[in-house]
């Protein structure tokens, strides 16, 4: 049985990452990349599906854990009647090979420890062929190779590699596991102590660049470190989460693969990173985007692979029983072929913001945006699957239209600011037409607020972003009414549902947790409508949902009081950073891209 989702911590090398539970067990690792097959998949099944566990060998023990300050280096402290032992887990920032390093330090007394390594490649299915090497083992399964090196003897037992050893105060024992390709030369072992120093230097150096100085600095820093860890360093793509199929409802079917780069999630990530002063990542991601977009504008996808791959075919694993029995376990994501009109607004907003904060724009990049807008001009009146990627048929989603307005609005501003040749008058006309249409058809007179889709009486938490994107200001009574209607109808237990799954036909059985990102959006919206105290109270409550090492999944189950959905999820951490930044700002929130501000707000 895997641990609860909130019992996991993340370690990573900015190309992939592993989840370590509170007992010192790694239950999830996709190697070599975030979206590769997992070699530890106990998270979605049982120990049969691969894990790596280091813990005291016998007797009772408890653990506490934390990250070393300003890093992604995890320290788990075991308290045993015999003494105290510290396990230091991390992945060095990758050079040629990817490694997981586990160092065991004797803090006091003497404790007998045990290490069990069960590699199961192909998402927990394939037991590798294992041979002995000096100080460790070499495991091969098809293209995959993993080399274990250890400072203590290891042996084989029940299709696992095992070590039993004693740790006394002052002792240091290490294990390194390195990924390689089975048809190439074996990777050399790394020096665990040197790797620890280098990794610490990397993360403290990175965290030291944070420009946010507000009250929530530590929390913001940790969320940004998490986002950095989810950014694929070779290309700048950002994964929505590092897991697949952690359920949005325990035992349910809302289980999806998030190990890909959504344009929406990544543009929001970029805004969070630049808000923190991290411009290199933002620039790398813009380059990623321009490469991914290459091709015909009508073939644009809402999500891509880490390197911009387009084929993300969805299939179901028939051998993994799923997290706490939540089936199916899906690999790939069919949402890749959906139409979601909002992505144009998010992209344009992101380019606009990059220009405002970094002055980074080239006319040839703008030409690509012009082509995208030509395409949007044709399709914006059509129904789409919307931000929530419903699988119950296309609709006229209000949020999608609002973001189409954002696309034309930011394009006009960019062209005017940079004095580029562009059909600005035509764009202004479309922008105004969309604005009028949303205000007429997205607003339900009877309810007195904006609603999820034209003609509907259902609410949608995505509309909380209305003042942030500058569509209407927080002072507009229609915005206030919408925020307060969401507060009344979509906030069971004080946190925000994205919509009511029992009333909206989304192609799936009803039931899911409250959506953490939407709950943070509510913080910004409350501030925007002038209710700063309520905004702050909500924020203070939301940060208590973070687990002991500061991580959030996609959703929270209010009844079971536990995190649900993929973990850690970029969306949740992005929304946290944005809400924290908004709370610290003197004036009211006026733009998702901070500088869209007053100019973007229309009556
Ligand atoms: O619930 C249905 C959909 O759920 C996923 O989408 C959600 O996660 C995405 C990544 O964070 C986010 O961009 C989107 O707005 C969310 O609704 C899933 O990936 C979809 O396939 C699924 O239809």
Return the CATH topology of the largest domain. Glycosyltransferase
* Portion in strands: 15-25%
Oligomer: single chain
Number of strands: 26
How many H/I helical runs? 14
What binds here, in terms of ligands, is: ligand LLGJG24Q
CATH architecture of the largest domain: Alpha/alpha barrel
Shape label: globular
Instruction: Supply the helix-strand structural class.
Output: alpha+beta
The largest sheet, given as strand count, sense and whether it forms a barrel, is: 15 strands, antiparallel
| Cα-atom radius of gyration | 24 Å
DSSP helix fraction: 25-40%
Mean pLDDT: 93
Overview in brief:
With 603 residues, this protein is of the alpha+beta class. It contains 14 helices and 26 strands. The structure holds the ligand OC[C@H]1O[C@H](O[C@H]2O[C@H](CO)[C@@H](O)[C@H](O)[C@H]2O)[C@H](O)[C@@H](O)[C@@H]1O.
Describe this structure in words.
This protein has 14 helices and 26 strands. The chain has a 15-stranded antiparallel β-sheet that branches. Strands 24-25-26 form a three-stranded antiparallel β-sheet. With about 600 residues, it is α+β, with helices and mostly antiparallel strands. Mean pLDDT is about 95; it is low at about 585-603. Bound molecules: the ligand OC[C@H]1O[C@H](O[C@H]2O[C@H](CO)[C@@H](O)[C@H](O)[C@H]2O)[C@H](O)[C@@H](O)[C@@H]1O. The ligand OC[C@H]1O[C@H](O[C@H]2O[C@H](CO)[C@@H](O)[C@H](O)[C@H]2O)[C@H](O)[C@@H](O)[C@@H]1O binds near residues 387, 391 and 571. Ligand LLGJG24Q binds near residues 262, 333, 387, 391 and 571. Keywords: Carbohydrate metabolism, Glycosidase, Hydrolase.
């Amino acid at each position: 049985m895997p641990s609860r989702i909130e019992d996991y911590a993340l370690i990573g090398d900015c190309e992939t990452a592993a989840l370590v539970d509170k007992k010192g067990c790694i239950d999830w690792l996709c190697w070599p990349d975030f979206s590769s097959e997992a070699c530890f998949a106990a998270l979605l099944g049982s120990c049969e599906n691969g894990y790596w566990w280091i813990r005291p060998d016998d007797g009772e023990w408890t653990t506490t854990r934390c990250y070393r300050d300003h890093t992604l280096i995890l320290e788990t402290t075991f308290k045993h009647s015999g003494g105290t032992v510290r396990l230091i887990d991390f992945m060095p920032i990758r050079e040629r090979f990817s490694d997981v390093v586990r160092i065991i330090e004797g803090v006091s007394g003497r404790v007998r420890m045990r290490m069990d390594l069960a590699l199961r490649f192909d998402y927990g299915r394939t037991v590798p062929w294992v041979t002995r090497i000096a100080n460790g083992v070499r495991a091969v399964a098809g293209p995959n190779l993993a080399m274990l090196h250890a400072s203590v003897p290891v042996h084989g037992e029940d299709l696992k590699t095992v070590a039993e050893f004693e740790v006394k105060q002052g002792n240091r024992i290490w294990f390194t596991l390195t990924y390689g390709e089975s048809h190439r030369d074996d990777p050399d072992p790394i020096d665990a102590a040197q790797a620890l120093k280098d990794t610490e230097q990397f993360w403290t150096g990175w965290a030291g660049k944070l420009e946010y100085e507000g009250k929530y600095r530590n929390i913001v820093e940790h969320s940004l470190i998490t986002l950095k860890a989810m950014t694929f360093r070779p290309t700048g793509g950002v994964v929505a989460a590092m897991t697949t199929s952690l359920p949005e409802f325990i035992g349910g079917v809302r289980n999806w693969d998030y190990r890909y780069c959504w344009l929406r999630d990544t543009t929001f990530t970029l805004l969070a990173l630049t808000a923190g002063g991290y411009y290199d990542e933002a620039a790398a991601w813009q380059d990623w985007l321009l490469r991914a977009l290459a091709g015909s504008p009508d073939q644009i996808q809402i999500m891509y692979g880490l390197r911009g791959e387009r084929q993300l075919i969805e299939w179901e694993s028939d051998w993994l029983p799923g997290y706490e029995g939540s089936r199916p376990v899906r690999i790939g994501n069919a949402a890749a072929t959906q139409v979601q009109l909002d992505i144009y607004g998010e992209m344009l907003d992101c380019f606009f913001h990059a220009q405002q904060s970094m002055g980074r724009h080239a006319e040839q990049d703008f030409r690509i945006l012009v082509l995208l807008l030509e395409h949007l001009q044709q399709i914006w009146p059509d129904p789409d699957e919307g931000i929530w990627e419903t699988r119950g048929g296309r609709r006229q989603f209000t949020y999608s239209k609002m973001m189409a307005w954002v696309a034309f609005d930011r394009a006009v501003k960019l062209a005017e600011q940079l004095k580029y040749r562009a059909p600005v008058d035509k764009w202004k006309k479309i922008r105004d037409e969309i604005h009028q249409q949303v205000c007429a058809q997205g607003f339900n007179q009877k309810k007195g607020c904006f609603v999820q889709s034209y003609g509907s009486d259902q609410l949608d938490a995505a509309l909380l972003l209305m003042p942030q994107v500058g569509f209407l200001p927080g002072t507009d009574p229609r915005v206030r009414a919408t925020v307060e209607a969401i507060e009344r109808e979509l906030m069971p237990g004080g946190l925000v549902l994205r919509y009511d799954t029992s009333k909206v036909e989304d192609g799936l059985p009803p039931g899911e947790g409250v959506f953490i990102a939407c709950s943070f959006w509510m913080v910004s919206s409350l501030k925007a409508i002038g209710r700063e105290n309520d905004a702050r109270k909500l924020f203070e409550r939301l940060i208590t949902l973070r687990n002991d090492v500061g991580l959030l999944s996609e959703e929270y189950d209010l009844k079971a009081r536990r995190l649900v959905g993929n973990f850690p999820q970029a969306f949740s951490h992005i929304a946290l950073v944005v809400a924290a930044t908004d709370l610290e700002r003197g004036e009211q929130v006026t733009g998702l891209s901070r500088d869209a501000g007053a100019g973007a707000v229309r009556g």
